[in-house]
Write a structure and sequence with these properties.
The complex is a heterodimer of chains A (313) and B (307).
Chain A lengths: L16 H17 L4 H15 L10 H17 L7 H14 L7 E6 L6 H14 L4 E6 L6 H12 L3 E2 L7 H14 L4 E6 L7 H14 L3 E7 L5 H15 L11 E5 L9 H10 L3 E5 L7 E2 L3 H9 L1
Parallel strand pairs in A: 1-4, 1-5, 2-3, 2-4, 5-6, 6-7
Antiparallel strand pairs in A: 7-8
Chain B lengths: L2 H17 L5 H17 L4 H14 L8 H21 L14 E7 L5 H14 L4 E6 L6 H12 L3 E2 L7 H14 L4 E6 L7 H14 L3 E7 L6 H12 L3 E5 L8 H10 L3 E5 L7 E3 L2 H8 L12
Parallel strand pairs in B: 1-4, 1-5, 2-3, 2-4, 5-6, 6-7
Antiparallel strand pairs in B: 7-8
Helix pairs in contact in B: 1-2, 2-3, 3-4, 4-10, 5-6, 7-8, 9-10
Classes of the chains: A alpha/beta (313), B alpha/beta (307).
The complex binds guanosine-5'-triphosphate (GTP) (2 copies) and magnesium ion (MG) (2 copies).
C-alpha cells in the first residue's frame, strides 16, 4: 500500500495534494479488502488525509514512512479503548458490596445481546468457564425462550462446566425469567449471573423493545454486544441501532446502553479483521473479549497492535 | 426486499447517463464509480467489483460508440449483464426433484449461518409441494443441535433422525438416510455442523459425511450480513464438496446481501432460496433473472436482452 506511492517524491519538502490523494485511495481499498465497512474506511481516510495535509517532511523522510505512521497512529487510536472494562474487578466489588449488605445480595450480572447466530450462547459459556477459572461462582439464565433448542444448548454447556442453569422452558417472558434467575442466584450466593438472550435483528422493533425491557427491569452491571468478525457493512448498523433502540425503547428514564463488545468467530476470517475497527469506531465501546474457536478456552483479549498490522499488511 | 436498495442506486447511477449531454469517458467513470460504491457498501467482494468495472469498460469502448441513446443502452446492458452473471452463477442448476425417487440434499456452511433453521423451512416448502421430506441431524458437535432440529421438525410435522450418543456424524448420516430410504421418503435433508476453512479436520469430516450420504445436491447456506470473508469461505466449501446451490438467510435484517454475490461467484452456483425471518414460512424461492429485472427497475428482463 504505502510502497505503491511516495518513493518518487521522496526528498521534497512537504506532502502534495496528489501524494495524499493517491495514498488515500490505496488506503481505502486496503481497508475495505480487510472488511472495514465502507463508511468507516472513508472516515478513517478522511481524518488521516486531513492530518497529513501540508505536513513538512524532514530531508531524509520518505513520504511512505510518514503516511504509514499516520495511518498506524489513527488506527491504534480508534482501537484503543477510551474506557476500559475490568470484569473481574467488577465481580470482586459486587462481592464486597454483598458482604457489607446481606439484604442486597445481587450477583454481578452480565447480559449478552446481538443479532441471530453470532455466538452469544457459546461465548457466554466461554465467559462462564473463564470466570470459574478465576475463582468466581457462576449461574446461567436461559432467557432465550424462543429459538428451538436454545435451552438444551445451555443445559449441555452447564452440565459440562458444572454450572447451575436457571431455566423456565420456552415461551416465557425473558425479562421475568431473568428477574427470577437473579433472585435464585442471590439466594445461592452466586457471584456472577450470565443472562443469555435470543438473537434479534436490529430493525425488529417488538423484539428490541422486549430486550430493552429486560435490561431495564434487571439493571445488569454489564451489557455485552456480541458481534461476529465475519460481518461486513452491517456491523455499523447493528451497533448504531442496538444502542439507539435500547435508548429510545427503554421504559425507564436512564437507559443502559452497550458497555462492551464480544468479537466472535475471529478464527474464521484470516487477515480480514476489519469488523473490529467498524464496531469500535461506531460504538466507542471496547472489545472486551475475542472469541476465536468453538471450545471453552477459545476466548482472548484484543491485541490492538496485531489488528493494526493485519489491516495494513 | 433489502437487496432492492442496491438496485435503486444502480438504476440512479445509470439514469445519470441520460442526464449528461455527452457520454464521454469521464461520465462513464463517474457512473461506474457510483455503482461500485453501492456494491461495496452492500459487501460485494472488492475484487469482484473491480472486475465488474473493468469488464463494463472493456465492453463499452466509449470513443468508438455511436451517439446518445444507443450509447447509453449499450452501457446499461453491459452493467445489467455483469450483474446478472454475478447473481446467477454459472450453470443454472436444474434441480428438479422427482417425486417417488430418493432425492438427497446436504446442508453445509459456516457456524451460525442458519443451516438448521433453513433445513426445516426447506422441508416444509417441499412438503407443501407434495413431497415426503425427512430430516437427518448429522451435527454431533454443537450443544443442543439435535434438540433444535427435533423441535423444529416436530412443529413442522416432519420425520427426523438423530442421536444423543453417537459421535460420528458420518455414521448418523448414513443410518438416517438408510432409514428414510426404507421408509420411502423422497426428499432426505441432511443437516451438518457449522465449520470454516481454517480448520481442515472439519472439512475432512464434511467430506466423510458427503461420502456416506452421496447427496444429489449440496446446499451452501450463507448469512446475508457476511462481509469480505464470504468469497474465500464459499470457495473452500465448493472445492471440498461441490456445492450446487446457495441459500441466503437473514435478509429480513438491514444487510444488503452483497456477500451472497461473492458466494455465487465462488461456487458458480445459483441462489435458490432466501430466508427472511426466524419462522418456518419466512422463506422465498429466488429467481435471479426476475430479481435482476426488479433490481434495475425494468420489471421485465426480456425487453432488455439482445436488442
Ligand atoms: N469458529 C468459531 N465458531 C464460533 C465461535 N463462537 C461461536 N461459534 C459457533 O457459532 C455457532 C452459533 O453460536 P451460538 O452461540 O449458538 O450463537 P447465538 O448467537 O447464541 O445464536 P442464536 O441464539 O440462535 O441467535 C455455533 O456453531 C458456535 O459453535 C468462535 O469464536 N469461532
Ligand atoms: N432473522 C432471521 N434469523 C434467522 C434466519 N435464518 C436463521 N435465523 C436465525 O439464525 C440463528 C442461527 O440459526 P441456526 O439454524 O441455528 O444456524 P446453523 O447454521 O444451523 O448454526 P450451527 O449449526 O451452529 O452452525 C438462529 O437464531 C435462527 O433463528 C432468517 O432468515 N432471519
Ligand atoms: Mg443463543
Ligand atoms: Mg445447526
Amino acid at each position: 500500500l504505502v510502497r505503491s506511492m511516495g518513493v518518487s517524491v521522496a526528498g521534497t519538502s512537504s506532502l502534495t495534494r496528489e501524494d495524499i490523494a493517491s495514498a488515500r485511495t490505496a488506503l481505502k481499498t486496503k481497508l475495505m479488502e480487510r472488511n472495514v465497512a465502507e463508511e468507516i474506511a472513508e472516515k478513517v481516510c478522511e481524518s488521516v488525509a486531513a492530518g497529513l495535509e501540508g505536513r513538512r517532511l524532514g530531508s531524509f523522510t520518505r513520504v511512505s514512512t510518514v503516511v504509514r505512521e499516520a495511518v498506524e497512529a489513527a488506527l491504534t487510536r480508534i482501537l484503543t479503548p477510551k474506557r476500559s472494562i475490568d470484569v473481574l474487578r467488577g465481580v470482586r466489588e459486587a462481592k464486597a458490596r454483598r458482604r457489607g449488605d446481606r439484604a442486597r445480595g445481587r450477583p454481578y450480572t452480565i447480559v449478552f445481546v446481538g443479532v441471530n447466530g453470532v455466538g452469544k450462547s457459546t461465548n457466554l459459556a466461554k465467559v462462564a468457564y473463564w470466570l470459574r477459572q478465576n475463582g468466581a461462582s457462576v449461574m446461567i439464565a436461559a432467557c432465550d425462550t424462543f429459538r428451538s433448542g436454545a435451552v438444551e444448548q445451555l443445559k449441555t454447556h452447564c452440565a459440562r462446566l458444572g454450572v447451575p442453569l436457571f431455566e423456565r422452558g420456552y415461551e416465557k417472558d425473558p425479562a421475568k425469567v431473568a428477574a427470577e434467575a437473579a433472585k435464585a442466584a442471590a439466594r445461592a450466593g452466586t457471584d456472577v449471573l450470565l443472562v443469555d438472550t435470543a438473537g434479534r435483528m436490529q430493525d425488529n422493533e417488538p423484539l428490541m423493545r422486549a430486550l430493552s425491557n429486560l435490561i431495564s427491569l434487571n439493571a445488569p452491571d454489564l451489557v455485552l454486544f456480541v458481534g461476529e468478525a465475519l460481518v461486513g457493512n452491517d456491523a455499523v448498523d447493528q451497533l448504531t441501532k442496538f444502542n439507539r433502540r435500547l435508548a429510545d425503547l427503554s421504559p425507564g428514564p436512564n437507559p443502559h446502553l452497550i458497555d462492551g463488545i464480544v468479537l466472535t468467530k475471529f478464527d474464521t476470517i484470516d487477515d480480514k479483521v476489519g469488523a473490529a475497527l467498524s464496531m469500535v469506531y461506531t460504538s466507542g465501546a471496547p472489545i472486551v473479549f475475542v472469541g476465536c474457536g468453538q471450545t471453552y478456552v477459545d476466548l482472548k483479549r484484543l491485541h490492538v497492535k496485531s489488528i493494526v498490522a493485519a489491516l495494513l499488511k | 426486499m433489502v437487496l432492492a436498495e442496491l438496485g435503486q442506486r444502480v438504476t440512479q447511477a445509470l439514469a445519470s447517463l441520460s442526464a449528461a449531454p455527452v457520454i464521454d469517458e469521464a461520465v462513464l467513470d463517474a457512473c461506474l464509480k457510483e455503482i461500485a460504491a453501492a456494491l461495496l457498501q452492500a459487501d460485494v467482494n472488492v475484487r469482484l467489483v473491480a472486475s465488474l468495472r473493468n469488464n463494463v469498460k472493456k465492453r463499452v469502448n466509449v470513443s468508438e460508440l455511436g451517439r446518445g441513446l444507443s450509447k447509453q443502452r449499450i452501457i446499461e446492458k453491459a452493467v445489467f449483464d455483469e450483474l446478472c452473471s454475478m447473481i446467477e452463477g454459472g450453470q443454472a442448476a436444474q434441480q428438479e426433484f422427482k417425486k417417488g425417487r430418493t432425492n438427497i440434499v446436504m446442508f453445509v456452511g459456516l457456524q451460525g449461518a442458519g443451516k438448521t433453521t433453513t433445513c426445516t423451512k426447506y422441508a416444509h416448502y417441499y412438503k407443501r409441494k407434495g413431497f415426503k421430506p425427512a430430516m437427518v441431524c448429522a451435527d454431533t458437535f454443537r450443544a443442543g443441535a439435535f434438540d433444535q432440529l427435533k423441535q423444529n421438525a416436530t412443529k413442522a410435522q416432519i420425520p427426523f433422525y438423530g442421536s444423543y450418543t453417537e459421535t460420528d456424524p458420518a455414521v448418523i448420516a448414513q443410518q438416517g438416510v438408510e432409514r428414510f430410504k426404507q421408509e420411502k421418503r423422497d426428499l432426505i435433508i441432511v443437516d451438518t455442523s457449522g465449520r470454516h476453512k481454517q480448520e481442515e479436520s472439519l472439512f475432512e469430516e464434511m467430506r466423510q459425511v458427503a461420502a456416506a450420504v452421496q447427496p444429489d445436491h449440496v446446499i451452501f447456506v450463507m448469512d446475508g450480513s457476511i462481509g469480505q470473508a464470504a468469497f474465500d469461505q464459499a470457495k473452500a466449501f465448493h472445492d471440498s464438496v461441490d456445492v450446487g446451490q446457495v441459500i441466503i438467510t437473514k435478509l429480513d435484517g438491514h444487510a444488503k446481501g452483497g456477500g451472497a454475490l461473492s458466494a455465487v461467484a465462488a461456487t458458480q452456483s445459483p441462489i435458490t432460496f432466501i430466508g427472511t425471518g426466524e419462522h418456518m414460512h419466512e422463506f422465498e424461492h429466488f429467481e435471479a433473472k426476475k430479481f435482476v429485472g426488479r433490481l434495475l427497475g425494468k420489471g421485465d428482463w426480456g425487453g432488455f436482452i439482445d436488442k
